[in-house]
Design brief:
Elements: H1 4-31, H2 37-58, H3 71-91, H4 96-103, H5 106-116, H6 124-141, H7 150-170, H8 178-197, H9 208-230, H10 236-239, H11 245-258, H12 264-286
Helix pairs in contact: 1-9, 1-11, 2-8, 2-9, 3-7, 3-8, 4-11, 4-12, 5-7, 6-12
Length: about 300
């Protein structure tokens, strides 16, 4: 068990990480008003690769940069690219609070995959919590003929891919530094976005939205550092629940920037997703009967 001081530090780090990640999403949403998805991600990747290379150098991990070519690292990068492309495409068409809530279903999806693959065994309480969480996703998406939204379905697909990415991450050996894994993913995202850009009509970069992309890259880097520190020498069951603060941040920023106010059904779905996730984390802490820990992971 971690000390109270370590857990307080972890909670603050998690809150800051989710704030940085949500602000990154907001800046990417603003940038998407001017740039097509491939150009937006490719330009952010240029900034992000520069920042990540600096982190690799400052941490002294340069001698291990060749580990970026390990199969699992490359697979994780490919999944990261898929998540980023789908998520950023959806981001332009959905309220920030809604799409953040859908992405927060990722830990529940991890649990379902873990149970299906035999990694995890769960009781009826957590099984019910997962069903409630997915019910919340359906309430947010509302997949009826009159409410069918391809962007919301794409956001759910990105959440599934994010869950697979996080499971692959758990299989990467500890001898490979996090900075190297992050660098590989960032470069693969950038190359994938540039490839998509071949089929897009790119626009001039001499505009304010370019500054947004630079800020987004910095926020992603800071968020990644804080979320790593959030889980260092802390109780995962205590810290993980605070990742759902991202939904509150997203709803607040969505209102302040775009005037988005979630309707009754969206708020109901968000509450079901967050409540289900928090209860699942609680049961994971009370009855740690599995080898899987559900941890927070950075969004695209």
């Amino acid at each position: 068990m971690a000390s109270s001081a370590d857990n307080r530090r972890g909670i603050i780090a998690m809150l800051l990480a989710m704030l940085f990640f949500t602000c990154n999403d907001a800046l990417m949403k603003l940038a998407r008003e001017a740039f097509p998805v491939g150009q937006a991600l490719a330009m952010r990747a240029i900034f992000a690769v520069s920042i990540t290379l600096a982190l690799v150098w400052l941490s002294g991990d340069g001698r291990k940069i060749g580990e970026a070519l390990q199969p699992l690292v490359l697979l994780r990068g490919a999944l990261e690219a898929s998540v980023a492309l789908i998520f950023i495409w959806s981001l332009a068409m959905l309220p920030l609070g809604n799409i953040t809530a859908i992405l927060m279903a990722s830990p529940l999806i991890i649990l379902v995959i873990a149970v299906a693959s035999g990694i995890e065994k769960v009781g009826w309480r957590r099984s019910l919590a997962v069903l409630v969480g997915f019910a919340g996703v359906l309430v947010v998406i509302r997949p009826t003929p009159e409410h069918m939204n391809i962007a919301a379905m794409a956001a759910l697909a990105s959440s599934v891919l994010a869950a697979l990415r996080d499971l692959v991450t758990r299989g990467i050996g500890n001898h490979i530094p996090s900075t190297v894994i992050s660098l590989a993913a960032t470069m693969i995202v950038g190359l994938s976005a540039a490839g998509l850009g071949l089929f897009e009509s790119w626009v001039s970069i001499q505009r304010l939205e370019t500054v947004y992309l630079g800020g987004a890259a910095l926020l992603v880097a800071l968020g990644s550092l804080f979320i790593v520190n959030a889980f260092r020498r802390t109780d995962v069951g205590v810290i993980s629940g605070y990742r759902y603060s991202g939904v509150a941040f997203a709803v607040a920023i969505g209102y302040l920037v775009w005037g988005d106010i979630p309707d009754f059904w969206a708020m109901t779905g968000i509450a079901l997703i967050a409540g289900s996730g928090l209860y699942t984390l609680h049961r994971q802490r009370v009855r740690p009967d599995s080898k899987l820990k559900i941890e927070g992971a950075p969004p695209p």
